Amino acid sequence: MNKVSNALRCLASAIFVSAMCVGSAAAQPVGAGCVLDQAAFAGRQVLRCAGGLTITAESGAQYSLLDRDGNGKADAARLSSRALLIDAPKGSLGKTGFQVLTPQAIAAVRGTKWAVDADGSKTSVFVAQGRVSVRRPDSGRGVTLGAGDGVDVEAGTGALTVKRWAPARVQALMARFGQ
């Protein structure tokens, strides 16, 4: 079985384990260099990965971790619904960075804190710290978001519009992660 398939199998097991073992002191391995932090609550999952990368998955998020270069470390996540909060301290990801892939967008970073929300027909990306590049999967053109910026990506070919998100929208998104 290849590493990605193994990571997906382990992730599915970890989801079941997290639902059954909340409060357990032991971390559960999920593959791709990540372990499930059993201190998660309210249905959220917190994955602690090699190099200091932390991924918080909103309750009910459908995602999988990817190790595309086969080095045993997560370098991407495929997100199909709900939201992920990525905290990648500067220098934690090496030269490859980290990407979140959704049906509408690819968001990539080298060191920052940001959230990606895949909601049916659109993907929203918000940056709390640092910078994140966002583009459609079929386009080389994209935008770069700074702290406090967000973008909503829908199907199509139109230009992406970076906006400063209102505090209420930021608070609502971050509350989904207990932040």
TrEMBL record:
Pfam families: FecR. The keyword Transport does not apply. Keywords: Signal. Residues 76-132 form the FecR protein domain. The keyword Signal applies. PROSITE patterns: PROKAR_LIPOPROTEIN. InterPro entries: FecR (IPR006860). Residues 1-27 form the signal peptide. It comes from the Bacteria. This is FecR protein domain-containing protein. It comes from Afipia massiliensis.
